[in-house]
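Late entry, written up from scratch paper. The run itself happened at the end of the previous shift, but nothing got recorded in the book at the time, so transcribing now.
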Amino acid sequence: MHEFDVVKSLIEELLPKLQEQKVKRVTELRFRRGSTFSEEALMQAFAVLSQGTPLEGADVKVETVETKFKCQCGHEQTISADDLIGHMFVCPQCGRAQEIDEAHDLELLEVVAEV
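Output as recorded:
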């Protein structure tokens, strides 16, 4: 699951910073996700990966921004995770399949913590 790996990478980057700041517990995290990055997958991955860390039990807030797709044929549309087959999007106009990279579709915006 690609989303799992993206969330894991963000958490692995965040945990040493929390330890450095002597954070006891994170109460809230705010993410921004592109519409092709599954919110359900984000929440599931976070629940699993945060266990036993200061992130466990944090309130997760997610802001969604539209992901725009523009095909070489000129067709443009907003797409969501439901429009993808794996990580591929098939243009409804010309049938061309293109890979969509969701790795840049998740951003950690804010961390609220107790020290």
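The helical segments are 2-20, 39-49.
(Scratch paper discarded after transcription.)
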